[in-house]
Amino acid sequence: MNSMNCQQFREMLVSGANNLANQHEYINTLNVFPVPDGDTGTNMNMTFGSGVREVSKMMSESIGETSKALGKNMLMSARGNSGVILSQIFKGIYRSFTDKQDVTAEDFCRAFENGSKQAYKAVMRPVEGTILTVIREASEAASRYFKAKKDCDIVQYFDALLISARKSLEHTPELLPVLKEVGVVDSGGAGLVCIIEGFWAYLHGRPIKLADASDKEQAAERGYCVEIVLRVTNKDHDYDSFRTVMGKNGSLVDCVKEENEIRFHVHTLKPGDVLNRSQKEGILESIKIENIEIEHNVKGDYTVKTVENSKYAIISVVNGKGIEEMFRQLGVEHFVFGGQTMNPAAGDFVSLIKNIHADTVFILPNNSNIIMAAQRAKKVLKDRNVIVMESKSIPEGLSAAMVLNQEAEPSENEDNMMEAIREVKTGSVTNAVKDTSFNSVAIHKDDYMGICGKEIIASSKDLKDVTCKLLDSMIDEDSSYVTVIYGRGVEKALVGEIEKYVNDKYGLDCGVNDGAQDLYPFIIGVE
């Protein structure tokens, strides 16, 4: 194939998107930390899939117009760091295709190299051994092949691109020691390779079809969030089988069994099927169903509350009703729903900011995987004064919101908020999603883990034991206050024991709050 027209280009994009959708759950498992936030595959799938769905409806015969629409839609749909970087790769690609009706292998050479450069420019501190390395090494190697081989066509170019991308991906553990320790390749790089594999398959006459499992991804983006507390009456109940069945009904976010009670949270397109199946297992003690699309579009309980002509406004990303209330008590009135396993898109921030009447808007992402999406939104809204604070946790966000001074200048507030963020240590307790070993800590699936920053402190089946060990690692002679935020299903008696532990052992004040967050029984801040 010496040249590609727009229809062929769209069909190639669909093949790449389908391959990513079919394999995104596997990509999620490549997470380094064994925590329930391995969502790289989901974020990339939602980012690229959204763009491809949009351009597949277009009737344009111009690859330039089509690729531009793809890039712009991906930018607004970009979720997580991996999704943002992927959107930047395709932004570089579409800029190379401007005014192109058809494209050649030489055009693809320039496009992928430009995509690599654009991705590196978008990251403040590029890290090798990631998707950045894969796109750079693959595009450079494929370009060398094109220049060395006379009459190289598009199929041959993608042959070289795929071989180089796979080789680069396999080498990522040698560049990032943490990947090597856990025994995985970079998940973002793996997602990029999936897309290129889909392109390659189309060019070889074997376009990838979408598997039925894609319904799970649709459920994660446009379905329903179903939370159920189920009391099991059969003492021989097969818990593992139940988890498998619920996973087939949608995307199972979490599922915890305590004695004869099961609490689970699933995203599904068919909530009725989940309810009917659950009734066969026992007695439904509590049911909560919410439309995910409404939450993603910042509607429902996360309504915009406009303050006309105000000097400042803060947007905070929250993942629980109790956490939202903690921010409200500090004067925050604008919220985006998200966090671990459900990263908001850049477009979520853009839509919200357009409806806020304030001279300066501060964004508190409260998660390291949301910061880049917030920064993309800031770049889109060039006519607004938007300041993205690099808060990587809920305690950091709370500390930043606490020091906002309505009388101070924006730069002074930014400095003070960053100082408040730096003075907070954040810890969390969650369940391990797989067996592994990290920094000599043996971890077993479903065990509780205490995590401080990027270090796993302890792992055990005993929630109190892990939480106390985590506190011991965080509290020192300079500590003055401890904030404990407990999640769904945590017993009040245990919360009281944790508070007493801090009071008795360290003599520190301990603020206890019901965050109602999923996945994390405890989120802890130490100042």
Q: What can you see in these coordinates?
A:
- With 527 residues, the chain is α+β, with helices and mostly antiparallel strands.
- It has 4 domains: 3-203, Serine Threonine Protein Phosphatase 5, Tetratricopeptide repeat (Alpha Horseshoe), CATH 1.25.40; 215-294, 2-Layer Sandwich (Alpha-Beta Plaits), CATH 3.30.70; 297-422, Rossmann fold; 425-526, Hypothetical Protein Tm841, Chain: A,domain 3 (2-Layer Sandwich), CATH 3.30.1180.
- 49% of the residues lie in helices and 20% in strands.
- It has 20 helices and 18 strands.
- The strands form 5 sheets. Strands 15-14-11-18-16-17 form a 6-stranded mixed beta sheet, with helices on both faces.
- Strand 4 (251-258) and strand 5 (261-268) form a beta hairpin.
- Helix 4 crosses helix 5.
- It is globular.
- Mean pLDDT is 87; it is low at 294-307.
Can you tell me the number of structural domains?
4
- Architecture per CATH nomenclature, i.e. the level-2 architecture of the largest domain: Alpha Horseshoe
Multimerization status: single chain
Helix content: 40-55%
Q: What's the helix count? A: 20
As residue ranges, the low-confidence spans are: 294-307
Radius of gyration: 24 Å
Average the pLDDT over all residues and give the rounded result.
87
* CATH class category label of the largest domain: Mainly Alpha
Q: How many strands, what sense, and barrel or not for the largest sheet?
A: 6 strands, mixed
Question: What is the CATH T-level topology of the largest domain?
Answer: Serine Threonine Protein Phosphatase 5, Tetratricopeptide repeat
E-strand count: 18
First-to-last CA distance: 62 Å
User: How do the strands of the widest beta sheet line up side by side?
Assistant: 15-14-11-18-16-17
Secondary-structure class:
alpha+beta
Global morphology? globular
Q: In what range is the share of β-strand residues?
A: 15-25%
CATH superfamily grouping of the largest domain: DhaL domain
